[in-house]
Structure to design on (248 residues):
């Protein structure tokens, strides 16, 4: 390595002295540039440590969750994003069809919009929940995650934290539902349906449904962010991300 260093420095010296009247200034710059390149090469060639891997994965998830919650929490972050849009509950499709047949198409649209607004509202407070979960990641599966699929870290986070996140997310959704008055739009729909003769009375758990779909949407966004970091060098916005994901 020393031979390479001195050879490059000698070349740089001769080149800049021959081509510039400010040879010493250019030579100093050449020395700095060459040593920087050599140091970068040495760092790149060193095997990744467990600490570096876990630090890189945590940062990737931090970046992903921060970007995702910021995107989802905007007005129309769910409502006008086809990937995240929360539709009328599938198990209540019969209710939707029935009340639309009664001329309540606008009420159905208002209800769907209110569900998505609740999810957008909840997303504003989701980042700290994800951050706390990320802090607890161990190094046990670090290299497996690193070498895994483009959504491996997201899947790991989802598998390890869904129960806890659901527990923490439910009251957030509940408050959001109250804030955007989901029940105000839901009650006329379900009341009209249940008044139809001979139908079986229904009342799906809207709170649980919105919680599940809101979390599902966030994980979709996080997976997209993770894939960007893994596949797009421009998305690696820190040295540790470049170090950990640069060799993939």
């Amino acid at each position: 390595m020393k031979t390479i260093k001195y050879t490059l420095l000698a070349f740089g010296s001769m080149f800049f002295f021959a081509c510039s009247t400010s040879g010493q200034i250019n030579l100093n710059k050449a020395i700095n540039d060459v040593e920087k390149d050599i140091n970068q090469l040495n760092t790149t060639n060193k095997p990744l440590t467990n600490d570096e891997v876990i630090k890189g994965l945590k940062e990737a998830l931090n970046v992903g969750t921060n970007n995702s919650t910021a995107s989802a929490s905007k007005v129309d972050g769910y409502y006008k994003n086809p990937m995240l849009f929360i539709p009328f509950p599938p198990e209540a499709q019969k209710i939707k069809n029935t009340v639309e047949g009664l001329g309540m198409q606008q009420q159905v649209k208002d209800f769907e919009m209110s569900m998505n607004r609740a999810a957008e509202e909840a997303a504003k407070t989701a980042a700290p929940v994800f951050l706390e979960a990320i802090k607890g990641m161990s190094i046990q599966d670090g290299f497996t995650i690193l070498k895994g699929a483009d959504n491996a870290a997201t899947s790991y986070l989802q598998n390890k934290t869904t129960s806890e996140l659901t527990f923490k997310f439910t009251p957030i959704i509940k408050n959001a539902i109250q804030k955007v008055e989901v029940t105000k739009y839901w009650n006329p729909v379900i009341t009209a349906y249940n008044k139809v003769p001979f139908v079986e009375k229904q009342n799906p758990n809207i709170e649980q449904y919105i919680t599940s779909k809101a979390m599902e949407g966030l994980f979709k966004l996080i997976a997209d962010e993770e894939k960007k970091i893994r596949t797009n060098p421009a998305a690696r916005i820190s040295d540790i991300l470049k170090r950990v994901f640069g060799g993939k």
Summary: The two ends are 25 Å apart (CA to CA). Residues 1-19, 34-43 have pLDDT under 50 and may be disordered. Residues 152-179 form the longest helix (28 residues). The chain is about 75% helix and 0% strand.
